[in-house]
Design brief:
The chain is built from two helices and eleven strands; from the N terminus they run βββββββββββαα. With about 220 residues, it is an alpha+beta fold. The strands form four sheets. It has a four-stranded antiparallel beta sheet. Strands 5-6-9 form a three-stranded antiparallel beta sheet, with no helix packed on it. It has a two-stranded antiparallel ribbon with strand order 1-2. The longest helix is centred in the C-terminal third of the chain and has 42 residues.
């Protein structure tokens, strides 16, 4: 941050009269802006008589910055889980889009979309999100985060991207509760059916044996 001043002839109107005075121009230059630079700046002018001041608010109007951190944290309850720490939003509400592609294909599929204020994934820490991606089959995947606001989106080539793999063992662990319930139900039904068949055959054999004994007695 640099403040530059230079002499200048100032034209103004005092008490109904046009006057020319020697004055200064102050220029505040902010190089490589960061989030903390977007705040209020107050200029104070004074002399032996008194002072005056003026406050300006420096507002950002740009696309968001690249997220600060993105990582695959592993399986949580058999589901791939990720940690994301967002960056500066550019002065506007930013949106995160999570996309996956089979490794090496570059065919991206949107999996999640949420804003920086979405409490579904937002943690207590500012701009820290934890989310998971469901419905993926065993394979090697790339996952990336695209970020944008109503001004623009970050270029795809700078979007953070990581690689992870789901093995067949992971997929077996990832079986849905519905599938498990259906499997158990089918198993129970098969067991009951076998018992019923055994009972029916046993009764038939008993009836058949009884008839034969009756025929022998009659003879």
């Amino acid at each position: 941050m640099v403040c530059i001043t230079r002499n200048i002839l100032v034209k103004d109107r005092f008490y109904g009269q046009h006057v020319k005075l020697e004055g200064y121009i102050a220029v505040l230059r902010i190089m490589s802006e960061v989030e903390t630079d977007f705040t209020n700046y107050t200029l104070v002018l004074g002399n032996v008589i008194g002072s005056t001041n003026m406050t300006l608010k420096h507002i950002s109007e740009s696309r968001p910055s690249v997220p600060k951190f993105f990582n695959y944290t592993g399986l949580v309850n058999s589901v791939p889980t990720f940690l994301l720490v967002g960056g500066f939003n550019g002065g506007r509400l930013q949106t995160f889009v999570i996309e996956t592609a089979i490794a090496g294909t570059d065919k991206w599929v949107e999996q999640l979309r949420f804003s920086e204020k979405d409490r579904t994934f937002l943690q207590k820490d500012i701009l820290t999100f934890i989310f998971n991606i469901t419905g993926l089959w065993p394979n090697s995947y790339d996952v990336r985060v695209r970020v944008g606001n109503d001004i623009d989106w970050i270029p795809d080539h700078v979007a953070p991207k990581i690689h992870f793999t789901i093995t067949s063992d992971d997929e077996e662990m990832h079986s849905s509760p519905v599938a498990i319930i259906v499997g158990i139900t089918l198993g129970v039904l098969i067991f009951i059916t076998v018992i019923v068949v055994v009972v029916v055959l046993t009764r038939k054999l008993k009836l058949s044996g009884g008839k034969k004994r009756q025929e022998i007695n009659e003879m």
